[in-house]
């Protein structure tokens, strides 16, 4: 499957010199288009405060309609109605904001994340998940299974109801049901690990991780021990230098640019 690497949201948090992006995958399947994460949507400009809450004060978004997934799908010459499925790593607003622009699409994520968004059981989760928002979506919950491990990750499930070669990999920690999404791009796999880490220095051991990102990661984590364990596992994966794997996350502009170059975009 052909995979496009899009930036669907730019943010300029204080003391994060390179800023942050919202890395979204647009996947061409045999019978339609699928998104992995959706970045910010058209409603996020006018309704920023109610949709993002207090986090926008730190993230300092630079909102632009042209960066939304729906406008980029149109700019690439596609019909937005061909986007039939959206796979989310988790339900934070900078990942699902674009979903509202594709009300006909099914929204896939782990059943654990769906349950967490409905229960809003902790203070962080009350802030994280807006009350009732999930009832407006066509949500499909999936349960990654230990019967289907993927590259050393213990639980995964192939989303064959979208297309063979799209795999939801359980990676809880940042949120209760957080997941990574692997996409078979023919001669390589793209693995989008969402917010499992924020800066490439956390996995490639080059350092330079802004302190502000470490603090933010810790504050919003559902399970800090699991976040640290995910860093370890992803560091190992990075060190293996698999030629057939492109590892990206949601917010690192360096990794977005590298993926775009690898995918042949000038
Ligand atoms: Zn995020």
Automatic annotation (TrEMBL):
<protein>
    <submittedName>
        <fullName>MBL fold metallo-hydrolase</fullName>
    </submittedName>
</protein>
<dbReference type="InterPro" id="IPR001279">
    <property type="entry name" value="Metallo-B-lactamas"/>
</dbReference>
<comment type="similarity">
    <text>Belongs to the metallo-beta-lactamase superfamily.</text>
</comment>
<dbReference type="InterPro" id="IPR051013">
    <property type="entry name" value="MBL_superfamily_lactonases"/>
</dbReference>
<keyword id="KW-0378">Hydrolase</keyword>
<dbReference type="GO" id="GO:0046872">
    <property type="term" value="F:metal ion binding"/>
</dbReference>
<dbReference type="Pfam" id="PF00753">
    <property type="entry name" value="Lactamase_B"/>
</dbReference>
<dbReference type="InterPro" id="IPR036866">
    <property type="entry name" value="RibonucZ/Hydroxyglut_hydro"/>
</dbReference>
<dbReference type="GO" id="GO:0016787">
    <property type="term" value="F:hydrolase activity"/>
</dbReference>
<keyword id="KW-0479">Metal-binding</keyword>
<feature type="domain" description="Metallo-beta-lactamase">
    <location>
        <begin position="21"/>
        <end position="231"/>
    </location>
</feature>
<keyword id="KW-0862">Zinc</keyword>
């Amino acid at each position: 499957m052909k995979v496009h690497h899009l930036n669907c949201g730019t943010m300029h948090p204080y003391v994060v010199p390179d800023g942050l992006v919202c890395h979204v995958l647009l996947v061409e399947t045999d019978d339609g288009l699928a998104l992995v994460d959706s970045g910010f949507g058209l409603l996020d400009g006018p309704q920023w405060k109610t949709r993002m809450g207090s986090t926008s004060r730190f993230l300092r978004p630079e909102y632009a309609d042209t960066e939304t997934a729906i406008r980029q799908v149109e700019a690439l010459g596609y019909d937005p109605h061909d986007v039939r499925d959206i796979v989310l790593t988790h339900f934070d607003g900078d990942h699902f904001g674009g979903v509202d622009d594709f009300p006909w699409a099914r929204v896939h994520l782990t059943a654990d994340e769906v349950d967490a968004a409905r229960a809003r059981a902790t203070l962080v989760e009350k802030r994280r998940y807006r009350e009732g928002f999930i009832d407006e979506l066509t949500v499909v919950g999936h349960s990654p299974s230990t019967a289907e491990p993927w590259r050393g990750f213990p639980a995964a499930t192939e989303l064959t109801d979208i297309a063979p070669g799209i795999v939801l990999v359980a990676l809880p920690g940042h949120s209760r049901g957080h997941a990574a999404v692997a996409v078979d791009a023919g001669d390589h796999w793209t693995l989008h690990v969402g917010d499992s880490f924020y800066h490439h220095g956390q996995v490639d051991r080059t350092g330079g991780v802004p302190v502000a990102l470490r603090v933010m990661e810790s504050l919003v984590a559902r399970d800090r021990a699991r976040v640290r364990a995910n860093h370890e596992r992803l560091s190992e994966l990075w060190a293996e230098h698999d030629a057939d794997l492109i590892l990206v996350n949601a917010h690192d502009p360096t990794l977005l640019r590298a993926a775009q170059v690898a995918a042949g975009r000038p």
